Each structure stands twice: as C-alpha cells, then as structure tokens.
Amino acid sequence: MHLFAIPRSLNVERVTLALGHKGLPVEISLVDPKDRTRVRKMSGQELVPVLVDDDNTVVFDSPVVLEHLERRYPDPPLWPADPARRAEMDVFIDWFNRVWKRPPNLIADEMAKPEPDEARIQRLGAELAGSLDRFERLLHGRRHLFGDEFSAADCIAFPFLQYALGIDANDHHLFHEVLARWLATDRHPRLAEWIRRVDERPRAGDVAVHELESI
Ligand SMILES: N[C@@H](CCC(=O)N[C@@H](CS)C(=O)NCC(=O)O)C(=O)O
C-alpha cells in the first residue's frame, strides 16, 4: 500500500492515524507541494492524501480513504457495527468537514488578503474558539469522541484539534497558525487529556519515506 503525502498535512494525518490503528503497513511518498503532476495523473485531482492500495485501487479525500480502509480491512474497526451509531458518526464527520472547518479556512483566506478585515477575523475566530465547549462535552464520561473506543471521528478531528495544546516551533503553515491562535485553551481539561491520549497512538509514518525523486 502506498500513501502520497505532503509534510504536515492534517488530512494526511487522518489517514496515518487510521492505518496505525489497523496496523497496516504502508509506504509514504512525499510529493513536492509545488508539483502535483504525479498526483493528478494518478488520481485525476491534485490534493493529498491519495492512497494506492495493494490491488492498485486509487482513493483520495481523507474521509473516503478511511471508509475504503474500513471496508477492505474491517478489523480492528473504526466505525461502530450498529447502523444507527454508524450513521451518527457519519453525521459528525460531515459536520466537521463542512461546518467546523469553514471558520479557520475563511480566516486563513482573509489573512492572506492585502488588507484583512480584522472584524471578520475576530468574528470567525470567536466561532472557532466557541466550538471547543462542544468537544469538551462530547468527551464527558468517555475516553474518545464517540465512546470509549478510538474511532473514525477521532481520526477526522484530532489533527485539527491538537492545536488547542500549542504548535510546533517549526510549523509555519498559515492554516495551522490560525488553529493554534484561536483554539489555544487551558479551560478544556477533557479535551486536553484526549489530545494527549490520541497523540500517543501509532501512526503509519515511521515507515520508509521516499522523496519525490525516488517514486
Ligand atoms: N477533502 C480533502 C482535502 C485534501 C487537502 O486539502 N489536501 C491538502 C493538504 S492537507 C492539499 O493537498 N493541499 C494542496 C496544497 O497544499 O497545495 C481531504 O480531506 O483529503
């Protein structure tokens, strides 16, 4: 199995967490962020992660990659077996991607403008910061977002929410700086515990990394 990635991609981290959970070996190839030719040729689009499975099936878009892994390698699971619980998790994943991610994306877009609208940034930032209470409540009395077990919901949310506990000094990605600025908190102890817990999990990143030249 082969995973195409760029360094520090949060959507790639979703997949490496899922692969780590399932104990699946993968080779990771770092793509030059400025040259997407190979990714486009392989998948018909330019974004990573792109997974090429052992039978050469090509899958992209992180939630779709997670679903593919679950279908093909169901054990250990990332979704609940019960159809209703499973649908609830899908609703969460959809909300996270379509609703939760909007404010930080809009803030980053605004900040990249020559004259950013500071009032708009503040408004969106307050919305982003306000979302933390909801995650704190989701973790009430359970170890992960949808229960005691680690799940697809944790894979989807963790790479983004981890910035509530700070940012690596070498991470200068604007979107990540936006997350770190607005999510910083010392008032969400369950969330902080969850971030530390998930951060200890295995990720499929310790495997051979091939630089662009070698793929
Ligand atoms: N919906 C896609 C989004 C993928 C995406 O935005 N990937 C980013 C990296 S996290 C990317 O390739 N961005 C293009 C770039 O940075 O030039 C997913 O969840 O996989």
Provide structural commentary:
With 215 residues, the protein is α/β, with parallel strands linked by helices. It has 2 domains: 2-77 and 202-214, 3-Layer(aba) Sandwich (Glutaredoxin); 83-199, Glutathione S-transferase Yfyf (Class Pi), Chain A, domain 2 (Up-down Bundle), CATH 1.20.1050. Helix content is 51%, strand content 7%. It is built from 10 helices and 5 strands; from the N terminus they run E-H-E-H-E-E-H-H-H-H-H-H-H-H-E. The protein has helices at residues 10-22, 37-43, 62-72, 83-100, 102-111, 118-130, 132-138, 152-161, 174-183, 189-199, and strands spanning 2-5, 27-30, 50-52, 58-60, 209-210. It has a 5-stranded mixed sheet, sandwiched between helices. It is globular and about 50 Å long. It starts with a strand and ends in a 5-residue tail after the last strand. 29% of the residues are buried.
Features:
single chain; 215 residues; alpha/beta; Glutaredoxin; Glutathione S-transferase Yfyf (Class Pi), Chain A, domain 2; 2 domains; five-stranded mixed sheet; 10 helices; disordered C terminus; binds glutathione
What is the H-and-E element order? Answer: EHEHEEHHHHHHHHE
- Kindly give the count of domains: 2
CATH topology of the largest domain: Glutathione S-transferase Yfyf (Class Pi), Chain A, domain 2
| Average pLDDT level | 94
Rg over CA atoms, rounded to whole Å, is 18 Å
Brief sketch in words of this structure:
By secondary structure, the chain is of the alpha/beta class.
